[in-house]
Design a protein that fits this description.
With 341 residues, the chain is of the alpha+beta class. The chain folds into 2 domains: 197 residues, no CATH class; 134 residues, no CATH class. The protein has 9 helices and 16 strands. The strands form 6 sheets. Strands 1, 2, 4, 5, 8 and 9 form a 6-stranded antiparallel beta sheet that branches. A hairpin with a 5-residue loop joins strand 15 and strand 16. It is globular, with a radius of gyration of 25 Å.
Length: 341
């Protein structure tokens, strides 16, 4: 879906941002990359974190998208406006929305990329990063006479505090958002960037898998007599349906995964309530995103934990597992198999 192997850093600049105007420092000079290894390190820091994101956004405004400040700045970058001035505009906009007392000072990096691939098409992109927390590291020194030294420093690591990546595609710009300190204040996504979920196959796939998981883990065991193994099997069938197809059809999913008429009716009621509660607008047919399936599949646990003694991984035929209770009250699972490896 999104690939960075051939990405290049076209332009880079950074400023110091603070709620205190006297502590703000605005640069008027682009940073010049020294060598290929330096660019590789910067790309790993600024791009790698986005590979684990399975949600795409788009710029939003209640009245007119052209009134979204960051959208207009990004559009100017895309059209070739002066990059330094646009980065200063970003600094000004971020400072203007940084009113909450919990907002931290930090370094603001603005980076223009080329050669990022999205849905098999190459595009330019704009990355915006606010680094609030520095990581500690040790620098060693060694002299010819055998003297060894340690210098303790703080610098930027690979965990991004706040970031967004705006892809300059032919259609509505896809936006990826990172906010690792959103519990303190949500100004980064809701005031600085201002985005809403894109209605695309990535989000549709992620949303339906999340819906299915919530149904199986929350609703299904309250309405139907089932074991943990039954739930794991149903979760497994849900994921396998998405892994084995290019297109999703809700009726087909219900028929092949849920199977039972009563479970299907319960799922439809749950589906309707889930979409309403979470304000989800999702079609009943869409192209399946393999990228989103891979991300969501990690959350579909196939492990049956029995006390602290055993973990059973269930990947297939539920009929090969029997559950029972001994006369003395001890519970057991009986597992059938052909080969041991």
């Amino acid at each position: 879906m999104i690939e960075f192997h051939d990405a290049l850093i076209d332009q880079l600049i950074f400023h110091r941002i603070s709620t205190d105007s006297e502590k703000c420092i605005v640069s008027n000079k682009l940073y010049s990359l020294g060598h290929a290894e330096e660019e590789k390190i910067l790309k790993d820091i600024f791009l790698k974190a986005f590979t684990s994101i399975g949600i795409t956004y788009q710029f939003h405004h209640d009245v007119d998208i052209s009134l979204n400040p960051l959208f207009k700045i990004a559009e100017g970058v895309h059209e070739g406006d002066n990059f330094i001035m646009k980065s200063i505009n970003i600094h000004q906009h971020l400072k203007a929305v940084s009113k909450h007392p919990n907002i931290k000072d930090g370094d603001l990096f603005v980076v223009k990329f080329d050669g990022i691939r999205f849905n098999n098409q190459s595009c330019e992109a704009l990355g915006i990063y606010k680094i609030e927390n520095k990581e500690s590291f040790i620098e060693t020194t060694a002299k010819a006479n055998g003297d060894m030294g340690l210098t303790f420093r703080k610098g930027i690591g690979r965990k991004l505090d706040k970031a967004c990546l705006i892809l300059f595609t032919d259609t509505t710009y896809p936006v990826f958002v990172i906010d690792n300190n959103s519990h303190e204040t949500d100004y980064w996504q809701n005031e600085f960037i201002k985005v809403s979920l894109r209605k695309d196959n990535i989000n549709s796939t992620s949303q339906f898998l999340s819906l299915a998981k919530s149904f199986v883990t929350d609703q299904y065991p309250t309405e139907f007599e089932s074991t943990k193994a039954d739930q794991i099997e149903l979760l497994g069938r849900s994921v396998e349906y998405f892994k084995g197809r290019e297109n999703f059809n809700k009726q087909e999913f219900e028929r092949e995964v849920l199977q039972d008429k009563g479970i299907i009716e319960s799922f439809r009621d749950f589906d309707s309530a889930y979409r309403s509660t979470n304000h989800i607008d999702m079609a009943d047919e869409f192209e399946i995103s393999a990228y989103a399936v891979k991300k969501q599949a990690r959350l579909f646990k196939s492990v049956l934990k029995l006390d602290k003694n055993f973990h059973i991984y269930i990947h297939g035929n539920r009929d090969l597992i029997e559950q029972g209770v001994e006369k003395d009250g001890r519970k057991y699972y009986k597992i059938y198999y052909k080969e041991e490896s």
